[in-house]
Design goal:
Elements (H helix, E strand, L loop, with lengths): L20 H9 L3 H12 L5 H8 L7 E7 L5 H14 L4 E7 L7 H9 L9 E7 L11 H10 L4 E7 L3 H9 L2 E6 L5 H7 L2 H4 L2 E4 L7 H14 L10 E4 L8 H17 L2 H31 L2 H10 L5 H13 L1
Parallel strand pairs: 1-4, 1-5, 2-3, 2-4, 5-6, 6-7
Helix pairs in contact: 1-2, 2-6, 4-11, 8-10
This protein binds guanosine-5'-triphosphate (GTP) and magnesium ion.
Length: 333
Amino acid sequence: MSDVNGSVPAAATPVRRSRDVPMLVDRARAGDHRAVARLITLVESGDETLPAIAAALAPYAGQAQVVGLTGSPGVGKSTTTNELVRALRARGRRVGVLAIDPSSPFTGGAILGDRVRMQDHATDPGVYIRSMSSRGHLGGLSAATPQAVRVLEGAGCDVVLVETVGVGQAEVEVASLADTTLVLLAPGMGDAIQAVKAGILEIADVFVVNKADRDGADATVRDIQGMIALGERGPGEWRPQVVRAVAVRGEGVDDIAAAIDKHRGWLVEHDELRRRREARAAAEIEAIALGVLRARIGSLRDGTQLPALAAEVAAGATDPYAAANTLLTQLTR
Ligand SMILES: Nc1nc2c(ncn2[C@@H]2O[C@H](COP(=O)(O)OP(=O)(O)OP(=O)(O)O)[C@@H](O)[C@H]2O)c(=O)[nH]1
Ligand SMILES: [Mg+2]
């Protein structure tokens, strides 16, 4: 549009390139999908605005119910997520989905698959879907995932679903992030046995035996129930639920939603929600502080302090413990 002089007014930086945190947060609060996407991109890339974003989002912490879904590749996590979104939307809940991809967000075939499977909700303003890379983070889950959850909370999501492929460490991480963790199994994949080996029994709040249209579903349900029965639980402790599903047909999804609600009720009743969230915050603070220390140690190595101390230790002028103490004092100054 041009003004009376025929000149075009200077356009504001488009949202997709903006670093204006208050504006982005305001727009995200108002339901602007582009602002939400931009904020997640900023937190994912570890942008310098990250602390300002975290500060702006702090008041909205804890407003969403965070549900983790994990399980072996191809077990049906995305299909189940898609159906859960549908069920939650039918109840009028606003939903955010974070699909954590172990490979690149741009080349990962799984992400293309997820996009197709979650296309059903692409035009629904009450649904945010985002894939994130876990590349570069040792544990498997993206280090930025907790911050991305905060963005979605800030955007008014009532529920945030976090899908992560169960490869080793990732399950344990998703459990530390989520209020409720769903572990998906499928018949005939040897999953039930592997679950026990990998310590999955401890992290699952709800087991979903998906692909129950296939042979062996009964045996898988029995295996899991048997293992749950063996576990020691004190009075009032949560007993993991086992739900059957055929996610491709949407079967069992209401049962999954009911199991999530039941677990939520238990969390609140036993003050476990507060405990889990404080543990999550502790892990977040620790990770950030360690990251800062690591960066400072890196810069010390490039600087003069570490080489100087190393020379002293090598020459026997001081010992490595005293030198490490000196280094730490310098780091925290
Ligand atoms: N027979 C049957 N197939 C299913 C069911 N649920 C999902 N599938 C199929 O299983 C395949 C994998 O499903 P996804 O939902 O992509 O599985 P995923 O766990 O998200 O896979 P990754 O993200 O690649 O680890 C797809 O071809 C689905 O159509 C089910 O209940 N029964
Ligand atoms: Mg998937």
